[in-house]
Design brief:
single chain; mainly alpha; about 75% helix
């Protein structure tokens, strides 16, 4: 019986080791989220130069944090920035699905290039599911 207890003690240790890389992944993911959110918070401000906003949009997309792109889709943003954010959003179909209402609004945008980008993003949703 004593031996059985000893085996029981070993198992949780093994399980812990297996989840270590996972914890590291979570930390990295959390860091990417934090960076993307901070970048979006700073760059989505209207007074930020256009080139900085566009760089932020592509960086956020590369970080895989498409949810942080949503601030760049606001009506008051520059057309070029909204378009870039929409194009990047289309690379992340799972976020496009969650933001279908937002994309639907963009379909009514006054700028044809944004309408086109929104159609493309909506198309990505359809092709993946």
């Amino acid at each position: 019986h004593h031996q059985h207890q000893h085996q029981h003690q070993q198992q949780p240790q093994q399980r812990q080791q297996a989840s270590l890389p996972n914890a590291e992944e979570q930390q990295k993911r959390a860091a990417r989220e934090a960076v993307a959110a901070k970048l979006a918070g700073l760059a989505a401000e209207k007074q930020v130069p256009e080139d900085v906003q566009l760089a932020a949009v592509s960086t956020i997309s590369r970080l895989g944090q498409a949810n942080s792109l949503l601030g760049f889709l606001a009506k008051e943003q520059r057309t070029t920035v909204v378009k870039a954010a929409t194009v990047e959003l289309s690379r992340h179909p799972e976020v496009c699905q969650q933001q279908a209402d937002l994309l639907a609004q963009l379909l009514g945008h006054s700028d044809p290039s944004i309408r086109l980008a929104a159609i493309h993003a909506c198309g990505e949703v359809g092709s993946k599911s």
